[in-house]
Design goal:
Order of helices and strands: HHHHHHH
Radius of gyration: 23 Å
Distance between the termini: 56 Å
Number of helices: 7
Largest sheet: none
Helix content: over 70%
Shape: elongated
Number of strands: 0
Strand content: under 5%
Structural class: mainly alpha
C-alpha cells in the first residue's frame, strides 16, 4: 500500500492534467459557456500573478530550508536519499510555472484554441506540482526535531578571539 502512495505522489501531476482539462472543456461545451476576449485577458493576468507568487513562495521556502541544512531533519532527509526527489519536484514546479507564464503572454497576442488547451493542461500540471512541493516543504519545516541544546551562535570568548585576530572592535560591528 505504501508503494502505491509513493507512486501516486510521484506521478499524479503527470496523470491528472489532461483529463481535468478535457472534462472542463466538455462541461463548457455542454452548458454552452464561452468567455470573451476581455474576460480571458483577466484570467491570463490572474494566472500570471498566481504563477509568479507560487514560484516566489517556493523559492522562499527553499531559502528557508537552505538555512537549516545542518539540522537533524535535513541530514535525515539526505541520509534517506530524498534530496534528488525534492530537487526534481521543485524543478518541475518552477519550470512548469515559467512555461505557464510564457504561454499566458503568448495567449495575449494569439488566442489560438490549441494553445489554450496546451496552456490549460500545463496550468493544471503546474498547480499540482506546486501543491505537491509546497506540501512537502511545509511538512519538512514543521517536523518536530529532537531538542538540540547546541547552538550555531558564536560564544563571547570565540567572538573576542576572532575580533582580535581581524583587528575589529565591537563598535565596528
Amino acid at each position: 500500500m505504501k508503494k502505491i502512495g509513493i507512486c501516486w505522489e510521484k506521478y499524479y501531476p503527470w496523470i491528472l492534467p489532461l483529463p481535468i482539462v478535457l472534462v472542463v472543456c466538455l462541461v463548457m461545451r455542454y452548458f454552452n459557456i464561452s468567455c470573451t476576449i476581455t474576460e480571458f485577458d483577466y484570467v491570463l493576468s490572474g494566472v500570471i500573478n498566481f504563477s509568479s507568487i507560487c514560484i516566489g513562495f517556493t523559492g522562499t521556502m527553499l531559502a528557508v530550508l537552505a538555512t537549516i541544512r545542518d539540522s537533524v531533519i535535513i541530514k535525515e532527509i539526505s541520509k534517506q536519499g530524498h534530496n534528488e526527489t525534492i530537487k526534481n519536484f521543485t524543478n518541475m514546479a518552477i519550470i512548469s510555472g515559467v512555461i505557464v507564464i510564457g504561454l499566458s503572454c503568448i495567449l495575449y497576442l494569439e488566442p489560438d484554441s490549441f494553445i489554450k488547451i496546451a496552456w490549460a493542461t500545463i496550468l493544471v500540471f503546474f498547480a499540482l506540482c506546486e501543491y505537491r512541493i509546497i506540501g512537502i516543504l511545509i511538512k519538512i519545516l514543521f517536523l518536530n526535531p529532537p531538542i538540540n541544546t547546541s547552538s550555531n551562535r558564536v560564544d563571547d570568548q570565540k567572538m573576542n578571539q576572532l575580533m582580535n585576530k581581524h583587528r575589529v572592535s565591537r563598535e565596528d560591528i
